Amino acid sequence: MIMTKPKAKYSGRLRPYLAWPTITAVLFCILSFIICFMDLKAGIVAVIFTLCYIAVVIVLVFVYKPKVMTDLVSFAAQYGQVQKQMLDEFSIPYGVLDIDGKIIWMNQHMRMMLEKSNRYHKSITNLIPEITIDKFPESREPVSFEFSMNDRDYRAELKRIRIDEWHASTDLMSIPEEQCYLHTIYIFDNTELKKALRANEEQRLVVGLIYIDNYDEVLDSTDDVRRSLLLALVDRKIDKFISNHHGIMKKLEKDKYYIIMKQKYLDILKANRFSLLEDIKTLNIGNDMRLTLSIGIGSNGSTYVETYEFSRAAIDLALGRGGDQAVVKTPDGISYYGGKSQQMEKNTRVKARVKAQALREFISTRDDVIIMGHKVTDIDTFGAAVGIYRAARVLGKRAYILIDENSTSIRPYLNLFRENREYESDMFINHRDADELVDNDTLLVVVDTNRPSNSEYPELLERSHTIAVLDHHRQSSEVIKNATLSYIEPYASSACEMVAEILQYFDDGVKLTNIEADCLYAGIIVDTNNFVAKTGVRTFEAAAYLRRCGADVTKVRKMMRNDMTSYKARAEAVRHAELYLDNYAISILPSAGLDSPTTVGAQAANELLNITGVKASFVLTAYNNQIYISARSIDEVNVQIIMERMGGGGHMNIAGAQLRDVTPEQAVDALKETLQTMKGEGAI
């Protein structure tokens, strides 16, 4: 039996396309047959035409058709080869990976970049560690990675492609449905783009303001013949410093300078932590007092005007934090540099008198006054609130103190007022009462804090239209923005000192009662650690004023005594203190059974400063599901900037922070890490 070899048959759209001449010939034959019946002569002509057409069709089908098919097959083969060659020579590195990230195929440019051949079939992670299997795309959306290789910057884009149709058309292997995909990788060279972006970023305009903090005080301590020379040296040092960084300096006033420079040089200033702050202190031609500067820098504003406004806000913040520091403000946040020295106390009381008169006007034009301090009320907050209460009562206004009555440290003072019939029963209110009282004719006075989140009732700030802030803590990036009156003096020892000064200028009719004077005096005693820390001339003058008003020193001392449990806890904290990095004492206060553990923690931190070699002390206390850190120093370390790194703040010598969702041990580790980092940076 003779076996015939099956021939290739055309299918799909090609089959009817190639069969149409034959079909047309058949139709012509039928047409010729019909015409013959109708008209013989016309039919003969039609038959002749049909025969000629059939001859042409025969030639097309049997002669040209095989040649056309050969050409089609040849073109298809060459087209596939061209596609493969084009993909292999594609100018962008391109490759195909399997579901495990192993390389299946790479084009020429990718092989050159990775220095591998197509025989390399290991994981892409071995060549590009930034691309790990857990970061591969899980949908059709591409995923991008940036990495560096051979001193060049690249961006890789991974994309998932389905292979369902190929899998359905082959029986070579069986692949689970969830694995019917591959990954393609494109690699783009972003080196030049990043260089251009960096160059553009480095050339951005930076605006700065430089103020001399103690201009008048330094000149007063300098001989007349040397003052002009000192000022010339200051101008020269600032100008030389800015010129060395390719900037321009313009003197605005006798103690104010305007500077502009490029962003790239600001990065250098940051790396050097604004060395001008320390360099300016070396100027000494007979002046008894060292010069200090405040620097405010604005950067990365969307417009030049916004950048300048950033610099204005930065210099205000630097001055509000006590000066001798640089503040850099950008849209992303605020950075602080310097601030290691204690701010000089201002001898003039002009500002206190102006603020006292402004506060008097605000109270006079309002029906009610609500006074609140910070969370976990202490005696400084309470004493300042009592002082403002007396000022409002002198003007005949109703005043209320919003207070956390759970603060056991102030409970003895609270009882003094509640047991005295001269004071209204609603003198102290809670949050619900405050919500009912506040309206458009209410003045809200915030004492002993300038941070909204740390206030006793932050929501009340949003509902109040007139707000006055009186505080002695250094400002941070978080401030009460809608304050109508803001009196923040970081040089003051306590809020009670500030209020005592205000009362002297507030009204001639202000007369404090004995217990009110006791509260204000106690606030000064606590915040100065018995006139040891952060005490100036005006502190003693405020204390003298309170003594004249009837403050009983002996009574205050008795009320400030601790019980035996608190004293033992403080002793335990001192006994178990750890000396970290040779100069930082760290301890955890056993807070169980204590009525006011945060107060005892602060006392323990003060005690640790009495140990030789301790530059700063940190006592951690667990209270109300938080970890409270009390930080203290004498003069060598600014604990404020340390606490700011941990989300807190305060003074250079007295600061604190609160940490949530951590154990005391974890808080200690975080504190140690912060100290180690800041010491490495030279920040402390």
Note the main attributes of this structure.
684 residues, six-stranded mixed β-sheet, 23 strands, six-stranded parallel β-sheet, single chain, alpha/beta
Written overview of the protein:
Helix 1 (14-38) packs antiparallel against helix 2, helix 12 packs parallel to helix 16 (495-506) and helix 20 (564-575) packs across helix 21. This protein is an alpha/beta fold and 684 residues long. The strands form 4 sheets. A 6-stranded mixed β-sheet has the order 7-8-6-9-10-11. The chain has a 6-stranded parallel β-sheet with strand order 14-13-12-15-16-17. Helices cover 44% and strands 20% of the residues. The protein contains 23 helices and 23 strands. A hairpin with a 5-residue loop joins strand 1 and strand 2.
Would you spell out the secondary-structure blueprint of this structure?
Blueprint: H1 14-38, H2 40-88, E1 94-97, E2 103-106, H3 108-114, E3 143-149, E4 152-162, H4 164-168, E5 181-189, H5 191-202, E6 205-212, H6 215-220, H7 224-244, E7 248-253, E8 256-262, H8 263-271, H9 276-279, E9 293-298, H10 304-320, E10 325-330, E11 333-338, H11 350-364, E12 368-372, H12 379-394, E13 398-402, H13 411-418, E14 428-429, H14 431-437, E15 442-447, H15 458-463, E16 466-471, E17 485-488, H16 495-506, H17 514-527, H18 537-548, H19 553-559, H20 564-575, E18 578-580, E19 584-589, H21 597-608, E20 616-623, E21 626-633, H22 639-645, E22 649-650, E23 654-660, H23 664-681
Parallel strand pairs: 9-10, 12-13, 12-15, 13-14, 15-16, 16-17, 19-20
Antiparallel strand pairs: 1-2, 1-5, 3-4, 4-5, 6-8, 6-9, 7-8, 10-11, 18-19, 20-21, 21-23, 22-23
